[in-house]
Amino acid sequence: MTLNGIKSYKNTLASVDESDKGALLIKVFQMMLEKLDIVNIYIESKNFEKRYAELSKIRQVIEILYDSVDVQYGEISKNLQNLYLYIIKRLDEANIKNDKDAVEECKSLIKTLYEGFEEAHKKERENNSGKDSSSAYDTFVASKKQINTQESPGRTLTVGGYL
Question: How many domains does the chain have?
């Protein structure tokens, strides 16, 4: 890890209460959205090395989120994992093809997830004012019967993945 990475990590820890996992998750989504904006700048400026580095970081975070999905929620968990896999696929396409549209699609999907987790976290905090609010993820998953997905031209996201 570079010195800048260590400094960034410490700044993130300082801005989020470690016992508030929901707030940490929200911060992760915010940072991914910011990095996707930076990726678009690198695509425009044809800075392939930095574009690759940023997309790789985002991809790693999505992989961690995929691995962290609690499968006890059955189909909802599977849908969330499929959505993460789809985002990974599109990030790879954005990297290979230098494709801003793929980046924007990923940004839109991540923003939708961010907003859902943020709303669940807010409700959890309201319901448990003064208590541990680490189960925002559980609230989000339990409150959704199905993950709303967005269609993109030429692609349809299905329960089993993408076509």
Answer: 1
